[in-house]
Specification:
By secondary structure, the protein is α+β, with helices and mostly antiparallel strands. The protein has 4 helices and 8 strands, in the order αββββαβββαβα. The strands form 2 sheets. Strands 1-2-3-6-5 form a 5-stranded mixed β-barrel. Strands 4-8 form a two-stranded antiparallel ribbon.
Length: 146
């Protein structure tokens, strides 16, 4: 089995906990929590943006949806840190493209293959003043927005 196969998890969505955390059941029947890596949904912005990001994630990942998760790391408590894909498209990246999340500069190096895509997506969303970017500066310190 190759390293890339060990990093990929076939799963089904059980639910959305918040704007960047989901619960899944993997193909062996185990349940797990997944934090979407390389993005943040700022906690310091207006509540409407957090609710909007959570609702968007619920629409993108309804319960029962099949997903593929690229596991980038795992926390001590077993929570998976990863990138979620539906139909070969990154949900994490889509949240940034639509202004529902910002790039997390602290974890961005973990998303090495798609780093530039995240940065371009954020710049485009900011330029178009989408979602969080409707405010002048949605967060004062991106790394505090965890």
């Amino acid at each position: 089995m190759s390293l890339i196969e060990l990093m990929l998890i076939l799963a089904t969505i059980i639910g959305v906990a918040d704007s960047n955390t989901i619960q899944i059941k993997d193909d062996t029947g185990k349940t797990a929590t997944v934090k979407l890596m390389c993005i943040n949904t700022p906690k310091e912005t207006k509540q409407q943006h957090i609710t909007s990001a959570t609702n968007k994630l619920k629409r993108l990942l309804p319960s029962g949806s099949p997903v593929v998760i690229k596991s980038l790391n795992r926390e001590e408590n077993g929570r998976i840190l990863g990138e979620v894909f539906v139909d070969n498209r990154s949900v994490n990246l889509r949240l940034v493209e639509e202004g529902n999340a910002v790039v997390d500069r602290e974890t961005l190096p973990d998303c090495e293959e798609s780093r530039m895509q995240y940065l371009v997506a954020e710049a485009n969303a900011k330029n178009k003043r989408l979602g969080l970017w409707q405010q002048f500066n949605p967060i004062s310190n991106r790394n505090r927005a965890r």
